[in-house]
Structures are given as structure tokens and as C-alpha cells.
Amino acid sequence: MIPKTLFENIRRIEITTNRLVTDVFAGQYKSTFKGRGMEFDEVREYMPGDDVRSIDWNVTARMGTAYIKKYVEERELTVMIMVDASPSCHFGMVREFKSRLAAEMAAVLSFAAIRNNDKIGLVIFTDGIEKYIPPRKGRLHVLRIIREVLYFKATGRKTNISGALDFLNRVVVRRCVGFLISDFIEDKTVEAGATPSFVKSMAVAARRHDLVAISLNDPRECELPECGIVSFVDAETSHVAVIDTTSPLTRQLYQERAEIRRAGREKMFRSMKVDHVEIWTHEPFADRLAKFFDMRRRKK
Fold it and tell me: Which of 33, 71, 276, 299 is most buried (CB neighbours < 10 A)?
């Protein structure tokens, strides 16, 4: 039995995101993500005006009259949603937590996919694979995905994006559309601007699949407010740092390092031709997602 409060929360997200799909993204998903091409359907007799390049010469030779091949668009897709459930995603200082934002993103993408009769699967990861739900169709399946992203209790304390991408390549043999939802914060001790450890795995996944990176961001990760001497605890390592936020130099260095990380991340995605959508906790994500769909459609 699902607790009443949990059910109401899932239902609220369903209503909100379903309305968003209907009002904002109707038709955009379908025109943005296409099937794998044209699939053979049947042969029929040649009629005047048909393209002679479509003639099936083997059938024509056997039947003694011209036949052509008919094709239909292979429309159905497999959509894999990979969600980072590491402790750093349970953070948000303005409007909502990054983890809640991830659930809303997963819901919108899932409802858009099932309206197009696509299959949706889910991978929840931290420093290991926490949960895998194979691709299926249907509203109840989407509601299960929302529930898992919202309420799954992860056991891992760190982030391993490479592991999630390698798992995707192992379990999904055919080309899929993969949405990687993460804050892309792994080892905080690595110098800002350094090459992330998951670059190789992402390059392999981007060649095999249509990979889209959705980064979760909070304004306080980019700008440090002036609020005295504050103790900060790293959610993934439990490391404690005491920082004097009244220092203009400290706030400037904090902001500069954040900008370097963001610029390096964007450069990395561009170099691997991975589309990137930057989502923020302090603003509705609909406009940014709509712009992404529009950009993808114009690129096709």
C-alpha cells in the first residue's frame, strides 16, 4: 500500500507535468526524437509513377512483373532516463532540491515518450547502480518511474557517472535516446577545469546512443552569499570546511571556480557532440526544455 502523502505527491507531479507536456511540448518531442529510419513493410505491384529505384528485382524476376518495396518509418524509440541519486543532488537553497527537479524532468520526458508510444526505462545511480527498471510502455509504468526517482533511498555516498554510462551500454544493445540527469559533481578535490573521469565512457555512449546531458544546478553553487563564518559539510565525503563568507576575495574565488567548472563542462559536451540542457532549481525548467527541443528540431 502506497502511503497517502506519497500518492498525493506523485499524483501532483503527474498532473503538473502531464499538463506541461500537453500545453508546451505537444508535438515537439515527436519532431525532435525520431526513429531509426525506414523499416521494410511489404512489396506490391509497380504502378506508373512509382520510383523505379524502389523495384525489388528479386521478386520481380520470380513473379514476371515489376514489384516495388514499401517502407514505413520505424517510429518507436527506447528512452533511457539515468538519474543521479548521490547526496550532492539532495541540495537546493532557493526553490526546490535538485533531486525533486530530477523527478519532474523524468516525469515530463516519460509522459512525452509514452504519448509517442515509446518505451521508457530508468537507471538510478550513485557510485554504483542502485536501481534498474527495464524499458516498458504505459502510464502505470511512468508513475512507477516517478515514484522511484522521488522516494528511492540510495545507499551509495558518492558519484560514478562512468559506471552509469557503462551500464547503459551493457543493458541496451540497440540505439536509444539516453537522458543523463545529474549535477555532474564527482570528485570535489579535482581542480576546477580538469578533465572529468567519465569522459571516456561518455564518448563511447554518445557514439552508440543519442545521449542528452541534463545538468542540475543551484545558484548557491555558483555564488556565495555574505553570511558570516559558516561551516560547510560535503554531503558525499562528510568533509567539514569553515569559510569566512564576509571575505570579498573568498566569494570571488568561489564564483570564479564555479564558472570554470561550468565552462569546462560545456566545452566537454560540445567536443563529444552531446546535447546539453542546463536546468536551475530557482526557475521553472519549461522554457529551457522548450528551447532545447526547438534547437534539436532545427539541427535535424
Answer: 33
* HEC profile of 6-22: HHHHHHHHHHHHHHHHH
The partner residues of 43 in beta bridges, in order of sequence, read: 69
Residues 52 and 152 in one domain: no
The range of the structural domain enclosing residue 55 comes to 40-73
Residues 6+ apart with CB under 8 A from 298: none
Lowest mean pLDDT segment, chosen from 51-55, 139-143, 208-212: 51-55
**Shared-domain flag, residues 108 and 47:** no
Q: Report DSSP letters for 246-268, one per residue.
A: T-HHHHHHHHHHHHHHHHHHHHH
Bridge-based pairing of strands 210-217 and 177-182 is: parallel
192 and 123 share a domain? Answer: yes
Express each pLDDT in 249-263 by its tens digit.
Answer: 999 999 999 999 999
DSSP string for 97-113: -HHHHHHHHHHHHHHHH
Q: What is the pLDDT of residue 1?
A: 43
| % of residues, the chain, pLDDT over 70 | 81
Give 182-203 pLDDT, tens digit per residue.
999 876 555 565 678 899 999 9
The string of DSSP codes covering 17-86 is: HHHHHHHTSTTHHHHHS--SEEEEEEEEE--TTS-GGGB-HHHHHHHSS-EEEEEEEE---EEEEEEE-S
147 and 271 in a single domain? The answer is yes
Q: Please state, for a pLDDT cut of 90, what percent of the chain lies above it.
A: 42
Nearest to 119 by CA among 106, 100, 134: 134
Contact 129, 164 (CB under 8 A): yes
Judge contact between 254 and 220, C-beta under 8 A. no
